[in-house]
Amino acid sequence: MRVLVAPDKFAGTLTAVEAAEAIAVGWRRRAPADELDLAPMADGGPGFVDVLHAGLGGQLLAAAVTGPGGDAGGAPAAVLLVDGTAYVESAQACGVQLTGGRGSGALAERATTVGVGELVAAAVDAGARRVVVGLGGSGTTDGGAGLLAALGARADVPLDRGPAGLAGVRTVDLAAARARVAGVELVVASDVDSPLTGLFGAAKTFGPQKGLAEERLPVVDGWLEELAHATDRRASLEPGAGAAGGLGFALLLLGASRVPGVALVADAVGLPRRAAAADLVVTGEGAFDFSSRSGKVPYGVAAVAAEALRPCVALAGQVLVGSREMRALGVESAYSVSELVGQERSLAEPAAALADLAERVARTWSR
């Protein structure tokens, strides 16, 4: 039997590459004759570059960039170069894992995206004519002001000091930043379709998970509103402008186009062709719930499987949907690691626990 294994990361425990390998280990214990095709997946968030490197090869260019706290060289990152295209993962420079996330308090109001701009600049300097920036998992809410500053933008307030630095902004000169990326095709890879500001904007929707206090959300949203009025209010209303704390907005200001992250990765690694060659598609993620429909990997992989007329099953740390919702997501069955081995072991030995679950699932699905 031919099985395509295409999981996302299991957040906090396994990368997508590690998850795919763990599933393969368990599956082979039960069905050693099956032919497994490992295709670790990602949207635009953490793991974006690693997954594309695993699938496409290419050259990794190391770049120590400014971290979200403003520490120069504090964030080790890499640019993936493949045939004139550079892939950049914003989470490497400003991810929530670098800020402490929930409870980080005042740091969240100072966290900057300068490092992401430095990665884009490194890609351009390396000769890339197309730069794809994966957005997701950020710990910043500065509207991409830091990115703009790193590329040469100037304003009447500091652009590199997080959202708090934007208070009172009235004028922003983007000429130098636009010149820095002139002739380069910029692409935003993100499945978040929120605008920059408002009830469903970057601060009010995602701010709490980045450490912004509830009572501060209107204040931060107001700072982003000022940035929008100083640059391009219409662009701030575009779907995806609120992605990664507003990094989507900054890239739109520089002329970027936007594509769904999962679809971009799927196309890049040839997932439709590989699904058509398989008998079964296996996907997975840390928590499989109905939010998985919002541009997450299992939903995207299931859609590819459905297009190829192949069944798709999901393995997850936790399964939080019923059978009806599961089928609405295009998944035949979903299986939970924590239900099989318990929550404690699933966290203490994530790879081994996932392998055990894969072995159990193979009993049902392998011929």
UniProtKB/TrEMBL annotation:
Coiled coil: none
Keywords: Kinase, Transferase
Enzyme nomenclature, EC number: 2.7.1.31
Keyword Metal-binding included in the entry's annotation: no
GO molecular function: glycerate kinase activity
Family: Belongs to the glycerate kinase type-1 family.
Biological process per Gene Ontology, one example term: organic acid phosphorylation
InterPro entries attached to this UniProt entry: Glyc_kinase_flavodox-like_fold (IPR018193), Glycerate_kinase (IPR004381), Glycerate_kinase_RE-like (IPR018197), Glycerate_kinase_sf (IPR036129)
A Pfam family of this chain: Gly_kinase
Name of the protein in its database record: Glycerate kinase
Protein's UniProt keywords contain Acetylation: no
Root EC class: transferase
